TrEMBL record, chain A:
The keyword Transmembrane helix applies. This is GPI transamidase component PIG-S. It is found in: Endoplasmic reticulum membrane. Residues 1-71 are annotated as: Disordered. It comes from Xylaria bambusicola.
Automatic annotation (TrEMBL), chain B:
Residues 1-21 form the signal peptide. One of its GO terms (biological process) is attachment of GPI anchor to protein. Pfam families: Gpi16. Keywords: Membrane, Signal, Transmembrane, Transmembrane helix. The chain crosses the membrane at residues 540-563. GO terms for cellular component: GPI-anchor transamidase complex. This is GPI transamidase component GPI16. The lineage of its organism: Eukaryota, Fungi, Dikarya, Ascomycota, Pezizomycotina. It comes from Xylaria bambusicola.
Length: 574, 603
């Protein structure tokens, strides 16, 4: 159809050209004119004289083009519209679909609210059981209520709630284990002293989480009193017992991203530099740790040691205590001809950091996911001078988040007996506790239960901040692809965070927080997200321009002329 | 039995006799080879009882390797780093019967404990990644396309008892890997004495990787003796062939460019008719070299490793009895009864060296070449392999296997693991025998073939072949070169692709009167091949984009204009709208009118 219209127009133009040719025939001569005329008429359908329009005379003879049929104009509009329809409805969606980057839907609001601490304010309810065999039930309840009141009046973190309650009536001594499982971190035992006692005294049990308070009979709480000296004393004792845990918690809150509005705690609860140093040296929490005991000698002896029995004797009790929170795998090695990084006899504080010869000593981390804690014994006579003025020397030092080193003067024989290793292994045991972030005060069992609670809050905060980082990352980099596994990890992490938040303070919450943390980390460090494809704009132009230029220009020009024609037609109509 | 053995087999003999004498053993075996070369074999072996290994107590066994083995359940491991070519024509049989060498590059095979094949694959992946980190090698590139499960070629060396059923053998090769100093350093770190004392103090990257041929091997296997607890044994071996003259070159002090020796130092062959003051035909290797350990290795041997059994000599040299050897003080010489080797007990402290002076070929006490080196033993089989054919589409491989023995047939397994982009046509596999008359060509006894899957696994071809005495076998097959995808080409695509060495396992002889050399499995590897694939011009994608875009744009523009343009007569077009030409003409006219007007005005 369109070709026939073109032919029609062509015919018209050819005829007019033929006319021009006949009228301005430059070499028409006498008798030849007729022949020329007939030839021109015969060849009317084809333009014979290309130089005809270049002659300057005929510009004045321009005619207006014949009026266009409205059906032709309509058809042209339809053609242009259908081209644009194909481009917009087929081309653009295909282009969009094939070049777009897959981004799984992340619950960004939820993630940000976790990171901002809006979803869960970490509240640690700590139940303290009060056992008072000498008081009757009513007196006990009254004492509890007034002690609780004075506890609440004491300055403290809002997220740290000490709750007093009466101990179950069963005998305390028989049921120490069951108390542990009931998550009662501290049992108060009130004992009425004899007449000679004038002021209340307290003592912390060395093995079990029991605080014994002996009070003089004169302080026996009377009913109907609003305050009592005994209650104040008890409250102060409890507060003191949990002071360290509270400061650790406030440290975590202060250093995490949640705490922007809680910054004041850091000054309020005395987070000084030494405390934050102690916190930064502890390892990242993990369910399992590899412990590597290494014996280094600069020469060839000693080449064997009784480390296995030494660990069994001196380290195993600590590891057994830690079992509910951490698992440990142990390996030992002997390394001869290991030259330390520092050769001097007296090691200064600066030397300690370079003493471990990382290039030559085979202290590579263990295979598997768990972190490695290194305990290195170096056979040498070196001494450590802490301060040039003081004469005190030490034999061991702790390397933050890595392990610890002990300098042991070499024995005469080539074999190191277990007794010789007693001091180093005991030192390592105490270093292990501080590397794990255990609090320093209190009995061991209390320290460990504190560790559980503190660690679960720590993991909770870490997981939340990882989620927040992931959310910010996905907002900041619109061209990064987010695979569905990330979304799954985030969902899992949030689920476990909720569980951990609801049961905060128990061992379950530690497990949930740990899962949440690993899932959040895995989502954040997703491999396919790290290497994002980068196409510079120049490359995009170089690829698109050769096609879009020649195709786009006629399309756009056609549209513009059509719109112009339509506009003029509208202006002419009225 | 000893007399028929070469001296480098002595440690092997010792190994069989007193393997449990000490938990740590090391020995250096030197053997001068023809053409002024020297084979140095370092052997280190340490044992740990399996119970200590399970309890994670590491003493002689390296912890870093032990943990990896435990983590992935590896029961036996063999790792090889090799460089260069063993010149069997002049150097004879290979050290350790070829069992402690790999093909060029890195080769790894291991027996993993796993219930299913998928589990074994996962463990293998972990193992290669972990070893890659430990040895600073690209072992993590041993992916599924480079991994095979040999059927006939490898047999476990250790004692695995009855639990052989759930062991999976996996084998991977990286022929492209360049072995260098960064692989030697972790290798030495595994040793108890760490290159600080004992024979390992001689090892130096500059000398080791300057050798004509070198091979580093690590073998871990459980060994059980009757009535004793099973031990896990790690054996580390370094074999290298040094060019004596090249190694003696002093370490350049400021001028690293080697200079030709001055004229008066040149050794000329005086028998040539044109020999004169200014013409010299070099006489290589004609006269023996004088050398010493400190010259060859660049340093002295520093004492002994104190963990070794002091009764085991640290250094052995394999030369005829008449060869003069001087040593530094306090070394004890122990001559072997066969007259072909002697060993030295090295003082535990201080430096040790061994000097072999030049022996005069003239005068009263003239020595011959037979007094300097022991004639190398003829290997059981010579093997070479090369690519045939031409063009970018097809090619062929030809392996020439020669049995030099005049009376014994050799039976062996020939294994090829080829990359998937080398698609072989198994029907073109042909064996042609030359030499002994009247021998039929059907010498291939068994074929195991696992065809390649594109991008998933390579070809595995194992052939059991029996070569009749004194004959040459030509093993040929054709293959097709496939075209890779754009991103599959390495950065140096035009260099070519390395094809791993084929592994030849010579099966022990079953005949009763066979010599002891034939009673053990011995190995042989051909050189690796460099296959050039059709390599595209890498700017091609952009060219394709431009070209297709232009074609589309041309077609589209023509069609579109034809559809939407209105055609009118040339005189009917509006003024100035006659396309670019019309516009230009219009512009020229206006310009010329203006110019004329200006001219008129100036006049």
């Amino acid at each position: 159809m369109s070709s026939s219209t073109a032919r029609n127009r062509k015919d018209g133009s050819a005829i007019s050209e033929a006319d021009v040719t006949t009228s301005s025939m430059p070499f028409g001569r006498g008798s030849d004119t007729d022949i020329a005329n007939t030839a021109a008429a015969a060849a009317a359908t084809e333009p014979i004289a290309p130089n005809s329009d270049s002659t300057s005379t005929e510009t004045s003879k321009r005619k207006p083009p014949p009026p266009e049929q409205p059906s032709h104009m309509f058809r042209r509009s339809l053609i242009i519209a259908s081209f644009w329809l194909v481009v917009l409805c087929l081309g653009v969606p295909i282009w969009w679909k094939t070049t777009t980057i897959y981004r799984a839907n992340l619950p960004l609001d939820q993630m940000m609210s976790w990171a901002d601490g809006k979803s869960c304010s970490p509240v640690l309810p700590i139940r303290i059981a009060l056992a008072s065999p000498d008081l009757n039930e009513q007196e006990t309840q009254h004492l509890i209520s007034i002690t609780q009141r004075s506890l609440d009046e004491m300055p403290g973190l809002p997220s740290f709630q000490l709750r007093l309650e009466a101990a179950a009536q069963t005998s305390l001594d028989d049921n120490l284990e069951s108390h542990d499982s009931n998550h009662i971190p501290l049992v108060l035992r009130l004992l009425q002293g004899n007449k000679t006692v004038s002021i209340p005294t307290s003592s912390l049990h060395t093995l079990f989480p029991i605080l014994e308070i002996t009070y003089p009979p004169s302080l026996r709480p009377a009913p109907e009193t609003i305050s009592s000296g005994l209650a104040t004393y008890i409250a102060a004792q409890i507060h003191e017992t949990f002071a360290e845990e509270q400061s650790i918690l406030s440290y975590f809150l202060a250093t995490s991203t949640i705490s922007s509005d809680r910054q004041q705690h850091s000054s309020q609860y005395g987070i000084d530099e030494s405390f934050s140093k102690r916190m930064t040296r502890s390892m990242k929490y993990s369910g399992t740790y590899h412990l590597t005991f290494s014996l280094f000698t600069s020469g060839s002896s000693p080449s064997s040691w009784d480390i296995e029995s030494a660990i069994n004797q001196y380290m195993k009790p600590v590891l057994d205590m830690l079992k509910p929170i951490h698992n440990f795998t142990i390996d030992t090695q002997v390394q001869l001809y290991a030259v330390p990084g520092v050769q001097s006899q007296v090691l200064t504080k600066e030397d300690l950091s370079s003493f471990i010869n990382a290039a030559e000593w085979p202290l590579s981390p263990s295979i598997g996911g768990a972190p490695t804690i290194n305990f290195a014994i170096y056979m040498g006579n070196q001494t450590i001078s802490l301060n040039s003025a003081e004469e005190t020397t030490s034999q061991s030092w702790l390397v933050p988040q890595w392990g610890s080193v002990y300098l042991l003067s070499p024995p005469a024989a080539t074999h190191v007996p277990a007794e010789f290793l007693k001091q180093p292994v005991l030192t390592f045991a105490s270093h292990l506790l501080s590397l794990l972030g255990t609090p320093q005060s209190g009995s061991l069992s209390m320290r460990l239960s504190t560790l559980t609670r503190v660690r679960s809050v720590d993991m909770l905060l870490r997981a939340s901040s990882s989620l927040g980082s992931l959310a910010r990352l996905s907002l900041a980099l619109p061209s990064i692809s987010i695979p569905s596994s990330v979304a799954e990890g985030v969902a899992k992490s949030i689920h476990h965070l909720e569980l951990a938040c609801s049961t905060l303070g128990s061992t379950d919450s530690l497990e949930h927080a740990r899962i949440a943390e690993t899932e959040a980390e895995r989502a954040f460090f997703e491999k396919s997200m790290v290497g994002q494809l980068y196409f510079p704009d120049e490359h995009k132009i170089a690829v698109y321009l050769p096609l879009l230029g020649p195709v786009g220009v006629p399309l756009v020009m056609g549209l513009i002329t059509e719109l112009k024609a339509w506009k003029t037609k509208r202006q002419q109509k009225p | 039995m000893m007399t028929s053995l070469f001296s480098y087999l002595i440690p092997l003999f010792l190994f069989f006799s007193n393997v449990f004498a000490s938990d740590y053993h090391e020995q250096l075996n030197l053997k001068p080879l023809p053409q002024s070369s020297l084979l140095a074999s370092f052997n280190f072996r340490s044992n740990t009882t399996l119970s200590q290994f399970e309890a994670h107590n590491f003493r002689y066994f390296p912890r870093s390797l032990g943990q990896i083995l435990q983590h992935v359940g590896t029961r036996e491991l063999h790792l090889r780093f090799s460089l260069g070519r063993w010149d069997a024509e002049s150097w004879g049989a290979r050290p350790w019967d070829g069992t402690k060498e790999g093909g060029t590059g890195v080769e790894l095979w291991a027996w993993l404990e796993a219930d299913t094949e998928e589990q074994a694959d996962l463990k293998w992946l972990t193992l290669t990644n972990a070893l890659s980190g430990l040895f600073c090698a690209s072992l993590n590139f041993i992916d599924e396309t480079r991994t095979t499960r040999p059927v006939m070629s490898f047999q476990p060396e250790g004692d695995h008892g009855s639990n052989l059923d759930n062991l999976h053998l996996l084998h991977g090769v990286l022929p492209h890997e360049i072995v260098c100093t960064e692989n030697l350093t972790p290798f030495l770190k595994l040793l108890p004495c760490k290159g600080k004392a004992g024979i390992s103090s001689l090892l130096d990257g500059h000398k080791l990787f300057d050798a004509s041929w070198q091979s580093m091997a690590i073998d871990v296997r459980p060994v059980c003796a009757q009535g004793q607890e099973c031990v896990l044994q790690i054996e580390q071996t370094i074999d290298m062939v040094l060019d004596i003259e090249r190694s003696k070159r002093p370490r350049a002090q400021g001028n690293p460019i080697p200079r030709p020796p001055p004229g008066h130092d040149l050794k000329c062959n005086a028998t040539k008719p044109y020999h004169s003051g200014d013409t010299c035909f070099p006489s290589d290797f004609a006269e023996g070299e004088d050398w010493s350990i400190d010259q060859i290795f660049g340093k002295f041997l520093r004492g002994t490793c104190p963990l070794t059994d002091p009764n085991v000599p640290a250094v052995c040299i394999h030369v005829p009895e008449r060869r003069d050897i001087f040593t530094t003080a306090n070394a004890v010489e122990l001559k072997n009864s066969d007259g072909l080797s002697r060993c030295y007990q090295v003082p535990s402290e201080g430096e040790f060296s061994m000097i072999l002076p030049r022996m005069s070929r003239e005068g009263d006490n003239a020595k011959t070449i037979a007094d300097e080196t022991v004639e190398p033993e003829t290997p059981l089989l010579y093997a070479e392999r090369s690519l045939t054919g031409h063009g970018q589409e097809r090619g062929g491989v030809q392996s020439i296997l020669t049995n030099p023995s005049p009376d014994t047939a050799v039976e062996f397994v020939y294994m090829e693991s080829l990359p998937w982009f080398m698609r072989i046509y198994l029907h073109t596999l042909k064996a042609r025998v030359e030499g002994a008359p009247g021998v039929k060509d059907d010498i291939i006894e068994e074929i195991y073939y696992r065809p390649a899957l594109d991008r998933a696994r390579g070809t595995q071809l194992e052939l059991r072949v029996r070569i009749p005495p004194a004959s040459i076998v030509f093993l040929t097959y054709d293959f097709e070169k496939s075209i890779l995808r754009y991103t599959e080409y390495p950065p140096d695509a035009n260099r070519g692709f390395d094809v791993a060495a084929s592994i030849i396992t010579i099966l022990p002889s079953t005949s009763p009167g066979a010599p002891p050399l034939r009673l053990r499995i011995s190995n042989l590897r051909t050189t690796s091949l460099l296959l050039s694939l059709p390599t595209p011009d890498f700017s091609m994608p952009y060219n394709v984009i431009i070209f297709t875009s232009t074609a589309i744009a041309l077609a589209f523009g023509g069609l579109y204009n034809l559809l939407v343009r209105r055609f009118v007569g040339a005189d009917e077009s509006p003024e100035g709208a006659g396309g670019l030409k019309g516009k230009l003409a219009f512009l020229v006219k206006r310009l010329s009118a203006k110019f004329k007007g200006a001219k008129v005005r100036t006049e």
